[in-house]
Amino acid sequence: MSVAVAGAAPEARSRQSTAERRVLRNGLLFVAPATLLLLATYVLPMIFLAGFSLTDYRLGALSTRFVGIDNFVKAFGDDVFMRALKNTVVYALIVIPFGVFLALGAALLVHGRKRSRAFWEAAYFLPVTATLVAMATVWQFLLHPSLGPVNAAIKWLGFGPVGFLSDPALLIPTMAIIGVWQILGFNMVLFLAGLTAIPKDLYEAARLDGARSPIDRFLTVTWPMLGPTTMFVVVTTSISAFKVFETVAVLTKGRFQSETLLFDLYLEGFEYSNTGYAAALTLIFLVIVLVMSIWQTVHMDRKVHY
């Protein structure tokens, strides 16, 4: 009897091992398509990008030379790149706070509507559905110094025309206003979703605890409960702000010292065919966005109530 049991034990372990291998094989087969897609769309391009950034490769060249980190050193000594970095930071410093808090204010106003809520949601979200290239062309007409209605109104008030798209001091703030207009509706919808998810019992409890005014209820209930939504909106708005490209490409084409990071990258890679240098700029851009996103997430996550 004991011999039979001892002989059955290895056989049972063998069947269990076979079943585990089968489960593992099936699992790998299910994961394989997503893994291959991830490798093809993210990992391999990043490897090639890193390889190009260490060379002086030019688009269409038959040979190339390894230059190490010379492209990265060149970037931080390049006046155009440093100006593009500064312009992008200024653009982001305007778009992020206004794009977040104006969207929150709009969401609070729309959330309180009953009959007209659907209309205001569609009206605010309309710029998100429109292509920014087409809308940038419309803004180009609106801000035209002689034909645009904005300058016509300024002249009617007795002031001289303003070169919104030709004055270097006004270019980045003007494009930032367009960026806020474009992202406002998307952020508002996110805040509306967060407001809808807040239990009404919390407002009743806050009212019983002495939070009589709407401001008190906002500070004690609404704002803390919107923490996760706010963190997501801030991170996505920051990434969108640093990715500004279409507005510059349509409105100024980089004239009047209005370059941004992505537009400078586009010029180096596709206009001047400096593929190796453009790859280095791309890596710098990705590192900036990655560090900024991680810092915002870690910093804000400590203050978020889930």
Tell me about the largest β-sheet. none
Overall morphology: flat
**Oligomeric organization of the protein chains:** single chain
| Unreliable sequence segments | none
SS field, number of helical segments:
13
Rg computed from alpha carbons, rounded to a whole number of angstroms: 27 Å
For the record, give the distance between the C-alpha atoms at the N and C termini, rounded to a whole number: 59 Å
User: How large a portion of the residues is in β-strands, by DSSP E?
Assistant: under 5%
Number of strands: 0
Mean residue pLDDT: 82
Q: Determine the fraction of residues in helical runs and give it as a percent range.
A: over 70%
Instruction: Classify the secondary structure makeup into a structural class.
Output: mainly alpha
Question: What can you tell me about this protein's structure?
Answer:
- The N and C termini lie far apart (59 Å).
- Helix 1 (2-53) packs across helix 13.
- The longest helix has 52 residues, at 2-53.
- 76% of the residues lie in helices and 0% in strands.
- With 306 residues, it is mainly α.
- 26% of the residues are buried.
- The chain has 13 helices and no strands.
- It has helices at residues 2-53, 70-76, 79-111, 117-129, 132-142, 149-156, 168-196, 200-208, 214-225, 227-242, 246-251, 261-271, 275-301.
- The model has no long low-confidence stretch (mean pLDDT 82).
Question: How would you summarize this macromolecular structure in one to three sentences?
Answer:
By secondary structure, the protein is mainly α.
